[in-house]
Amino acid sequence: MRRSVSAQGRGGLSGRRDQEARFVLLLRHPGAVIQSLTSRRAEPDHDQIRGEVLGYAEKLEEARQQLPGAHVITYEDLTAGPEQLTRGLCEYLGVPWESGMLEYGTKDHATFRPKLGDWSDEIRSGRIQAARQADLGAELPPRLAEIAKAWRYPVQAPPRRSVAARSAGRTGTRSASEAGRSLGK
Fold this sequence. Notes:
- By secondary structure, the protein is mainly alpha-helical.
- 46% of the residues lie in helices and 4% in strands.
- The radius of gyration is 22 Å and the shape is globular.
- Mean pLDDT is 75; it is low at 170-185.
């Protein structure tokens, strides 16, 4: 069984699936993912990061649509109440819950490979830490905003343009006062 959305993206979700398979989808506010990746890179390429997050979110949303019985959890809920959430997850998977599941810092996980996820000192601390909240004042690209809304995350509405700006955008014309300002009058 493929265990990640990135692996799933290569093979797709179509085709025969094992009737015993259980699917778990872990969602996180796309804006928070963008912020996280941006803060962890020395010279972040904002367009590239938004593209990375969009590609991942698209695959995750496709999985969410194609796997209606999947167990959906959010990163924010996982970090806020890890014991309660992992107990529910174990129940869904049909495996016994163990307190050691919350003590990941005591295990040797080898090295963390930077990709989409946390490879900072926070994960190496071995402690579950509260998720950083997305900056709700930050504007997401339209498709990411659409996905965030589908995942029931709050999203800032895009700035409203004035009637004059919308009209100028449709016709390619400007008002006389706008034209005068651009000519230095």
